[in-house]
Amino acid sequence: MTAVAVDGLRKRYGDHEAVRGVDFTVRDGEIFALLGPNGAGKTTTLEILEGFRDRDGGSVEVLGRDPGRKADGRWLRGQIGLVLQDIAVEPYLSVRETIARNAGYYPEPRGVDEVIDLVGLEEKRGAKVKDLSGGQKRRLDLALGVVGNPQLLFLDEPTTGFDPNARRGAWEVVRNLRDAGTTIVLTTHYMDEAQALADSVAVIAGGRIVAAGTPDTLGGRDSALARIRFALPQGAAIADVPLPVTDAEDGLVTAEAEEPTAALHRLTEWALRRGTPLERLTVEQPTLEDVYLSLTGKYAEKEASSPSSERGRRPSPGRGRRPGRSRS
Ligand SMILES: Nc1ncnc2c1ncn2[C@@H]1O[C@H](COP(=O)(O)OP(=O)(O)OP(=O)(O)O)[C@@H](O)[C@H]1O
């Protein structure tokens, strides 16, 4: 079943078309990541799905309902969870009191202590919200997003400001939620996060989807050539290397290979015969970040060379502008 279906979505702010015909679907029970540079239209798209913003065109279905219709929007608010960047919480309430208060807004909430354990705030159960660290506060945000036992959870940059251990902890929480049946739609600027978590991803740039797929296949990543890099051995010239190589950064040379095993065999045999080691040898497939940068870079180049491109766009106003989005 489809949890979210977006078809030809459009949204304009004055004369700026922020979302220009976006299509994607999110399958029931998956983690879907919407990726894109600042100002690409991610927040606008999510706000429309969450029922906080009207659209100008296209169709949107969330759990089979239209968040743009008042009655559907009300029903959806009981079924979806939101973890946003700027949830307002009462600083003098304790962690437990804050979660218990939010639980009261939902028809079938999760147990408060279960949620505290789920997000790893056991030690801080009785602590006042104002005394939490930045990372602990984000865990509380996550707790508030899941306490309603939502079918669908929206996570807006869920690990911004986390230390590396806390990020891995949060990923574990998100995976556990998915495994327990929650569908998750997230935005992130961290490609390692999308790689680690997402079952499928879509890249948005300039209000359009420029690529969609799984993290491993996005933009033809799985069929891309492997890159072999190494420092040219002392006394060797580029022409001596038994593979076509080009100069790379940092004094390294690069060979691109369809069959990296065979290419490495030729290369290492050559080096052993010469008796010179291949220093700083690495073999890499393009990472999700490489593919993302290439997709969004190509988009930016196309925009810059298009005579109709819109220059000097207003910078993204950042967070804190979703109308009426705080629940606490
Ligand atoms: N309320 C608004 N009024 C006018 N313009 C807006 C408004 N909200 C967003 N925009 C513009 O629409 C475009 C898309 O913004 P949006 O916030 O959806 O991007 P984003 O992909 O979420 O960016 P970021 O990664 O920086 O959060 C931007 O050019 C932004 O300046």
Automatic annotation (TrEMBL):
Alphabetic keyword roster: Antibiotic resistance, ATP-binding, Cell membrane, Membrane, Nucleotide-binding, Translocase, Transport
Coarse class of the protein's main subcellular location: membrane
Topology in the lipid bilayer: Peripheral membrane protein
UniProt-listed Enzyme Commission number(s): 7.6.2.2
Subcellular location: Cell membrane
Alphabetical list of SMART domains matching this protein: AAA (SM00382)
InterPro entries the UniProt entry points to: AAA+_ATPase, ABC_transporter-like_ATP-bd, ABC_transporter-like_CS, ABC_transporter_ATP-binding, P-loop_NTPase
Ranges for domain ABC transporter: 4-231
Gene Ontology CC entries for this record: plasma membrane
Any one GO biological process: response to antibiotic
Family that this chain belongs to: Belongs to the ABC transporter superfamily. Drug exporter-1 (DrugE1) (TC 3.A.1.105) family.
Descriptive protein name: ABC-type xenobiotic transporter
Organism: Streptomyces pristinaespiralis (strain ATCC 25486 / DSM 40338 / CBS 914.69 / JCM 4507 / KCC S-0507 / NBRC 13074 / NRRL 2958 / 5647)
